[in-house]
Specification:
The protein has 263 residues and is mainly alpha-helical. The protein is 66% helix and 7% strand. The relative contact order is 0.08.
Length: 263
Amino acid sequence: MNKFIANWWRSQQFKLAISRGNTRQAMQLLQEIQKSGARLSWLEKLFRDKLQLEIYSQQYKQEVKSLKNKLNDALQELENINTQEQNSQVLVPEQEFIESVYKNFNLKYHDQTKLQCTGINQDIFNDLEENLIAYLQDELSKIPQKQLKLKLEDALEDINNLKIGRDPSYAFSLTPHVYFMKYFLENVYCLYLAWFLIYEAGLLPKNVNILDIAAGPGTVVYGLALFLQSSIGFLQIPQMHISYYSLEKQDAFQYRGLQFWRR
């Protein structure tokens, strides 16, 4: 009889604790009821199941957190591996060299998309210009003076179509020579800076494969070659192989640049 009254009293106290929101007291009373061996009421069973679900939920959250941490660690490790592989395949930007290019070319960013260049690397480009002049003098000296003037005028008229939005035919024998005199050095200058920006962004690979459509005399390769030449003393460049294939309409125009480069 006393046991029955004690169980009844605990159940009443349990209901009162639940009604007051006293979870800690309700948990303590539930443990006492379970230890007594008394049959649980529907409210006590419901509270017991609620506690069990909370335990499962907490375990689930801890497991999810643990798995997320493991996943993040694995992703970070994979990113580090990828970064190492990429660094092994590209030329890692060297700050001292970057600063020297900015100084030589007087590079200034006016905003994120506008870069002003008002300088030049005299040592690199003076040598290029001298070699180009020597090549042109040698080539043009082979043509009789009477024919030379006419051929130059025809080639110049053809190339000047670019100024009115037309494609030149590039069909004249001195078209490459006029291109060298009017556009080549400026274009190489621009491509030098383009290769520099690729390098600065960490995107210049150690092994370069170039497919140049309408390649002309190899202006793109000249820009890259001069850029690499100017990096001597700053970068430890591994032995680099450049695979260069060009597609050009005029055979006479295609490899002229490579010819005077070999001089």
